[in-house]
Give the backbone structure.
Amino acid sequence: MDALHPEAEVHIDDDLVRALLHEQHPDLAGETLARVDAGWDNVTYRVGGELAIRIPRRETAVALVLNEQRWLPVLGPRLGIAVPLPTRSGVPSGLFKWPWSIVKWVPGQTVDSEPMAPGQAAHLAEVLRALHQDAPEEAPTNPFRGIPLRLRHEFVVERVQGLPHVPGRDLGTLTAFWEAGLAAPEASEAVWIHGDLHPRNVLAVDGRLTGIIDWGDVCSGDPATDLACAWMLFRSAEARSRLWQGYEPSHDVVVRARAWAVFFASALSTSGEPRHESIGHTILANLLNA
């Protein structure tokens, strides 16, 4: 999210996916295939009715695939919500040079197109409380997520100044939110975080939270990174209030979370990817109308 939408470094199509299944998981090679999405890091196909295959589209995503394979089976079962648990792995071969995963299919629509009801904030709070437990020393770290806000300062200042669609008076509000986060005490403990809880990674059905996907950025760090979702996933103050009531964060965590929301809003709004830009604009509106 720190640059314009990156080009794929490999070509992934139906023929390649089918060939990989024939080569490494032949019992799945006869299942129906349906291309679902090509995100920043992975291409996803649905395999039959119960599985999906996730294949990295650029080399920097390989570490994220391995993170999911290693840690999601540990974290997923305690969350009380559907996640794309890896069920099988793919190894580098002559067909494809990087590892890849077969995961459980998670039903639902991304909440940028299927908004959650405000009452679902309480459910999300339960999920995040279950996730945000002390992370072990061997947990991965992430140079862009869960880190002290000061390490993102230069990026945020540049991106906020590049938001021509935000009236000048509102730039000052965003800057004030960011500076308040910088001034708040930094997190004293590192917990497990998802790291990328924007609306394309959260699923709902009929307004009900059903799943969280794309766990490649899972790492240890500041839970405020995830709690930025209060402005990313919900448009009403009522929903944010329910999230805070269920999670019970300290004041300092909320202030840092709001600053992280400024980070995500500025990054997505200037990403060059239309769906992400739309999400970024919505986060900005949520922050400025809170």
